[in-house]
Amino acid sequence: LRTKSMTLKINKTKKLKLKRTKLKYVEWESSNDQIAYVDPGNGRVYALKSGRVTLRTRAGGVTNSCSVLVQDPGQVTKGPALSK
Question: What is the pTM of this model?
């Protein structure tokens, strides 16, 4: 895979691509389809709800993976509170 990790907002998509492969058959898999689903026909990832998943590909006996963090677009990440 060209991408080893990525962050997506809920309801966004991104297409994953394999490095230098001419194989016609690539197997795509998500560790949790309820958080992020990967289309087995084209490698497009759909972010469905907040959480972390690992996406895996298998092609020609080689397995690759990509870590995906799915975030709620309304969620604001705040740093630690500063004391006065």
Answer: 0.80
Per-residue pLDDT of the chain (84 residues; tens, 9 = 90+): 888 999 999 999 999 988 766 777 889 999 999 999 999 888 999 999 999 999 999 988 889 999 999 999 886 555 454 444
> Of the candidates 63, 70, 56, 75, which has an alpha carbon nearest to the alpha carbon of residue 14?
70
DSSP states along 8-25: EETT-EEE---SS---S-
- Residues 35 and 53: beta-carbon distance below 8 Å: yes
Report residue 73: phi and psi, to 5°. -65, -20
